[in-house]
Design a protein that fits this description.
Blueprint: E1 3-7, E2 10-13, E3 18-25, E4 33-39, E5 46-51, E6 57-59, E7 67-72, E8 77-82, E9 91-98, E10 112-113, E11 117-122
Length: about 120
């Protein structure tokens, strides 16, 4: 059974940085593509970035140049490094995994989700 657990969220001031982690278990980590999404109340889940099994990445325009996705196959962990955070980045951040949905920023293509970690950026 796929299990994804996010951590690393918190409250920071604008311009600050955070690194989110997503610990994965229950499947062959290196064979799944993964993504980071974020969601605020009343809004649709938004794709932030994605990484495929070969390490290639794609990002939403709103975070390009500020956010970096990486993964450590030995630790079964996905990361999201977030720099120069803005108040509009405040959201619950969720990681997702799927064996076939690679480099996708649309949430309905992923079948496995974590519970999320909250990020709050104050101005």
């Amino acid at each position: 059974q796929v299990r994804l657990v996010e951590s690393g969220g918190g409250s920071v001031q604008a311009g600050g940085s955070l690194r989110l982690s997503c610990a994965a278990s229950g499947y062959s980590f290196g064979r799944y593509c993964m993504g980071w999404f974020r969601q605020t109340p009343g809004k649709a889940r938004e794709g932030v970035g994605a990484i495929d099994t070969g390490g290639r990445t794609t990002y939403a325009d709103s975070v390009k140049g500020r956010f970096t996705i990486s993964k450590d196959n030995a630790k079964n962990t996905l990361y999201l490094e977030m720099n120069n955070l803005k108040p509009e980045d405040s959201a619950k951040y969720l990681c997702a995994a799927d064996p076939a949905s690679c480099l996708q920023l649309v949430h309905w293509t992923y079948n496995n989700w974590g519970q999320g970690t909250q990020v709050t950026v104050s101005s």
